[in-house]
Specification:
Chain lengths: 156, 156
């Protein structure tokens, strides 16, 4: 219930009456450092061209996995939105009074609260990666880094 | 051990000696139907322009979440690569004798075996979505559908 209390329902929003099914397990591979301390600070969507540089801190056992990432200028970052409720199936997006399905918005509220940002890679160090284009809270758990041969949308 | 046995190590590959940490739980929201019955059938990367049409079958409780998705021509699909080992930190990619870090390849073998494909959306029905651009086995568990305002790489 504590998780639900953080997000009050807006009028008309619809939840599913199913407990979360533990079908598989995610392990965190690090922590994301951003300048966004509260949800109000977070941009609606990250900007891979002009957004602030953020840091992906990688846990020691996974650091060798960064080998070769420096050859890429872009990536897809996955992270776990650990403060989001997971039971909304119809939601009322910010700045809209129309209800839309959870899979028709990129809101953090979803059955699996996995965030995805297309980023530009600024630097790869032995223990961390500097990127632009994230939109998440400081301290968000990191779950994957995937290299991308294509530039993120909006980048030359 | 059964999971590991499915993927023999290639020379020089390095695993981490850490059990999977159960930091969070994923719930499957449906099943993906593709023409790819074996790993050998799967393309190295999906083709959102010319790849075969695949079906995202959505579980009944999450179907209202598709409302409004028909307004989008593209999306990011997340799925759980349930047959992949999770302990490789340096891997020898297919068609290369060089070892690279797990985060410098888009291989299904990663600490969190989450697949991500940028797809074109062909049709949205009440209970399923037809897309092009997937690369995964038939029967792969679906974990998220995110709409995208931009076309996938390689599309107009």
């Amino acid at each position: 219930m504590a998780e639900r209390d953080r997000y009050a329902l807006r009028p008309g929003e619809v939840t599913v009456d199913h407990p979360v099914q533990p079908d598989a397990v995610v392990q965190f591979i690090g922590t994301i450092r951003t300048p966004f301390a509260t949800r109000a600070d977070c941009p609606r969507r990250g900007d891979p061209a002009n957004g602030p540089v953020c840091t992906l801190e990688v846990l020691p056992q996974w650091r060798p996995g960064l080998t070769g990432l420096e050859r890429f200028a872009a990536g897809d970052i996955l992270y776990w939105l650990d403060q989001s409720r997971r039971d909304l199936v119809l939601q009322a997006p910010h700045s809209s009074d129309r209800l839309v399905g959870t899979f028709a918005v990129r809101s953090p509220v979803r059955p699996n609260p996995i965030g995805l940002s297309h980023v530009t890679i600024e630097a790869v160090h032995a223990d961390r990666v500097l990127v632009r284009g994230l939109d998440c809270l400081d301290g968000t758990p990191l779950i994957d880094i995937k290299p991308n041969r294509c530039n993120p949308p909006g980048i030359g």
